[in-house]
Structure formats: structure tokens, C-alpha cells
Amino acid sequence: MRDIFSDTVGTIGWRAAANSRKLTSGKFDYLPICTPDAKTVLYEDADGKLEKVPLQGGTTQRGPDFEVFSRITVSPDGKLAAFVTFRLGDPKEKLAMVSLDSSQPPRFLEFERPRVESLVGLGDAPVSFTRDGKGVVYPVRDGDVDNLWLQNLDGSPGKSLTNFKSELIRDFDYSVDGKQLAIIRGHRESDVVLLRDAEK
Fold it and tell me: SS3 of 133, please?
């Protein structure tokens, strides 16, 4: 279900339906995602923290007290949310695995391969659960080329899902049946311009 969106400045969450309804009232609520049962919306607030709100409206609930540094992804069974975070005193980013019913304390996993960081500053670096919920997928970079890496959550060795020889990955997502991946790829172009003062 993908009928949740933010307004033009990303500050208010709305449900897009025949009768639109305001879901949140924070200063800057953005990057919403619905749980698979379409009952709850997870999002990042102005402080960079995970929050959730019932899709039908109601009181928002703040998640654990550490910041979100990627999009939020939800496991197919709706029990876990995962996102990139940093822990106090640790310079290495971690994958936070958060129980949505608060029955378990958060788990923090090391990334098997360094993720692509070019999108982190925009707050939308993609990380996604596999459709069987047994792993997470994220872009990794080698030189000027991005590929998708599958990291298994049971600790077994991961693997590359793509073998591109050029271009960067901007975004990706699974098809509904989980059998295919759609990937947005491209490259950056830049020029150096030298300006001189004509009067000197």
C-alpha cells in the first residue's frame, strides 16, 4: 500500500484516498511507509527519530532513541522495521532492527559491505528487506559503479545481486511478487569552470 505522502515541503503526513486525512502534525514528518497489513504508518520526524501512527489516525508513538539515516524498511511479516543508524561513540554505521510491537530490544548489525553513502545527506538512502524477510539489500560502490548487495540476517555470507559495469544506483524496489527488482540507474556529470577578474 503506497497511498501515504507528504505535502510539498514534506512537513505533514496525509493519507491519499477518497477522503484525505491528516495523520501527523510534526514540524517535518517525512519518508512514510505502510506496514504490510496497512494498519500503521512509520516515518521519520524532524529530530530524525522513528515514529509510527495508525493509518486510520490517532496518537503517534515515538520509537527508540536513536536516529534514522536511511529510508525505513518493514519486514514482509510486519514485525520488524530496519534502517541505518549510528550509535553514540561508534563512528561506524549500523543496521538497526526494531521490533514494531516493542517485544524485543533493538538489534544492531554490522554492514557486510560499505553502503553507498551519496544519498545519506538527502535522508533517502535505500535499504530494503528481501521478500522472504531473511535478508536486506542495499547498494555498494566499486569505483564509479554501483551494484546491489544481499546481506543475510542469519550471518551467512551475502552475495551481489547485480553485476553492472557502469552507472550509479539511485533507487530500487521489489515487484509485488518479489521475483523482480526495478532499479533506477544513472550517472553524474560535472564541469570545472575557471573565473577570472577581467580588470586585473
Answer: coil
Residue with cell 532499479: 183
Q: For the chain, how many residues are written?
A: 200
User: What global pTM score does this model have?
Assistant: 0.79
Contact of 121 with 171, CB cutoff 8 Å = no
β-partners of residue 30 are 44
Q: Grid coordinates standing for 193? A: 569552470
Number of neighbouring beta carbons within 10 Å of residue 31: 17
> Among residues 43, 46, 9, which one has the least CA distance to residue 27?
46
- Which residues, at least 6 apart from 188, have a Cβ–Cβ distance to it below 8 Å? 168
Q: What is the pLDDT of residues 147-175, one digit of tens each?
A: 999 999 999 999 999 999 999 898 898 88
- Closest C-alpha among 141, 131, 155 to residue 73: 131
Q: Are 170 and 185 within 8 A, CB to CB?
A: yes
For residues 81 and 135, the answer to whether their CB atoms sit within 8 Å is no
